[in-house]
Amino acid sequence: MIKVKLSDICEIQAGGTPSRNITEYWTGGEIPWVKIGDLKEKYVSHTQESITDDGLQNSSAKLFPKGTILYSIFATLGEVAILNIDAATNQAIAGLIIKDNNLNADFLYYYLISKKKKVNEMGRGVAQNNINLKMLRDFEIELPSLSQQKNTVDKFNHLLNLIQKRKNQLEKLDLLAKAKFYEMFGCAKNGNVKGKLVPIETVAKELFAGGDKPSDFSAIQTAEYPYPVFSNGERDNGLLCFSRTYRVGEKAITISARGTIGFITIRDPFFTPVVRLITFIPNDNTNIVYLKHCFMQLELSQTGTSQGQLTVPDFKKAIIPLPPIELQNEFAHFVEQAEKIKSKIKQSLEKLELLKQSLLQKYFG
User: Fold this and answer.
1) For residue 80, is pLDDT > 50?
2) CATH code given to domain 2-143
3) Which helix (H) or strand (E) segment is 35 a member of?
4) Where are the alpha helices (DSSP H) in 186-239?
5) Which CATH topology does 196-322 take?
6) pTM for the structure as a whole
7) Which sign, positive or negative, has the C-alpha torsion 212, 215, 217, 219?
8) Cα–Cα–Cα angle for 152, 118, 37, rounded to 5 degrees
9) Nearest to 133 by CA among 102, 183, 93
């Protein structure tokens, strides 16, 4: 096993961004342009944005060939992917083009993943949490023989295939629940709804914005210890910054109302709503699971008023189908069974991810 610098085995360059002020660089472009948000899987096969040839020629952007390893060097450090297409990147991403026949591209991909923590430590203390091209070019890796590289890659490829299968299974179950909803209740977007239509406020026992006290104060108020605060799907403990500290004492649905509008989830009793959430407690004649999926069909992002904000009055007026409670319960039972299967798949996925981390440590130290 030999130790080499990345610059010994790869040609390394950073990308660039054509001027956003020149629409000709961005309109009708056919050159895929990669941002860090596009580095979600091992291979990049499509991008959110594209640029024109003029944009490429009149900026520091570069066209990297298929097979280039992409590596994030700015803000979010250490994200890795392999180009499955010819594409340009922004300046936060470096392209590593292999120039040594003794290097397996997949091996380098897994090696760089294993060093993400180390690279983030290198970036700390540097302006805006980044590493420059010199640091990347000087980064050393231990390079075993080509046959050993292939053996390592085969093991990781097999493991990643299993992980991807589990993710695909979870995605299919989510789609199955959506398909079942459309089958039973129709689709409001297409104007094909089964059952009468009612405003959301007619099926609400309580409906209020985070920071407001519910009119029916079945909520429990205490300041003896920190308790969960929920905000747009993220959880934080402690309420020192809030003047009112109470917990909703019933199972409820929360809807994110600012920024990313429409994150919808069911909360167990005794949670604390915050200002970015709308809290909905259903009346006794509706099923909370049905209502959650019903809300997910709404165009909530278009319901808001200014600055991407969903207001309680707007949400109250939104129209939903209200089928008989027996059908709501039937759908909820279907979702419950799907959730049980999802739970088992998630447990399997967690074990595979732990195995992946263990193997990264074993093979790359």
Assistant:
1) yes
2) 3.90.220.20
3) none
4) none
5) Adenine-n6-DNA-methyltransferase TaqI; Chain A, domain 2 (3.90.220)
6) 0.72
7) negative
8) 80
9) 93
